[in-house]
Amino acid sequence: MSFTNSQCLDSCAFCFDVLRAKFDSKVSVRDPDLPSGKFPLFVTWKKKESSRTSWRLRGCIGTFEARPLAKGLEDYALISALKDSRFRPMAQKEIPSLAVNTSFLTNFEDGKNCYDWTIGLHGITIKFDGSYDNYSATYLPEVCKEQGWNKNVCLETLIRKSGYRGRISEHLFERIQLTRYQSVKAKMTYDEYCAYAKI
User: Fold this and answer.
1) Degrees, nearest 5: CA angle 181-187-188
2) Are 140 and 103 in contact (CB under 8 A)?
3) Long-range contacts of 75-79 (CB under 8 A, 24+ apart)
4) Lower CB count within 10 Å: N or C terminus of the chain?
5) Which residues does the chain have with pLDDT short of 70?
6) How far is it, in rounded angstroms, from Cα 120 to Cα 102?
7) Spatial strand order in the sheet of 134-139
8) pTM of the entire structure?
C-alpha cells in the first residue's frame, strides 16, 4: 500500500495535535487522512538544540504489531513523548522546539545472514540466544546512515542495545537471526506544523 504526500504530512500533524491536546484540553484533534489498513509503526520526537541547527533524539517508541494507523499514531505519539525510559517525560514548553518523524514499516523479509541488508534502505531487527537469555533489538532504516556507521558498527551497537553485555565475536554474528524491512517516512517541525495546520 502506498501513502500520498498529503497522508504522510497528515500523520505528522496528527501527532502534534495529539501531543498538544494532552497538555491543553482546548486543542482540537483533527481526523487525519490516512490509508485504511494496519501497519507496524514508530513515532520519533527530536528536539532542536538551542544554540545549533542540529536535532537530538527526544523519544522514539513504536510497535511491530500491525495497528490501525490513527489509533497507533495516537498511542505512540504520547508513549514516545512521555514514556521513553531513556528520557524524562516531555513538558509542554518543549513542543515549539520539536520535530516529529513517523515511520510505517513495510516489506519484512528474513535475511540470509546478519549482513543481508542495505544501509539507508533497510531497517533491521536482530534476535539471538545468549547463555541465559534471548535478545532482540531494532534500528529504523535511517539510523545507521545518520550515524555514519558501517554494518559491523551498526550490528555491534544493536547487540548492545538489546541488553547483551557479553563478548561480541564472529561466532555471535553467525547466530544472529536478522529481519530486514523498509519504511514510509515523514517528518515535520513544529513551525511546519503550525503552517500546515493554520494555527
Assistant:
1) 165
2) yes
3) 76/41, 76/42, 76/43, 77/14, 77/15, 77/18, 77/19, 77/43, 78/18, 78/19, 78/22, 79/43
4) N
5) 1, 51-52
6) 16
7) 55-68, 38-48, 98-110, 177-189, 123-129, 134-139
8) 0.84
- DSSP-assigned states of every residue in 126-173: EEEE-SS-EEEEEE-HHHHHHHT--HHHHHHHHHHHTT--S---HHHH
- Match 545507521 to its residue by C-alpha cell: 144
Backbone angles phi, psi at 90, to 5 degrees: -65, 145
Q: Provide Rg for the chain, Cα atoms.
A: 18
* Helices 69-82, 5-23: inter-axial angle, 10-degree rounding: 50
C-alpha cell at 131: 547463555
**Do 15 and 46 form a contact (C-beta atoms < 8 A)?**
no
User: Are 157 and 149 within 8 A, CB to CB?
Assistant: yes
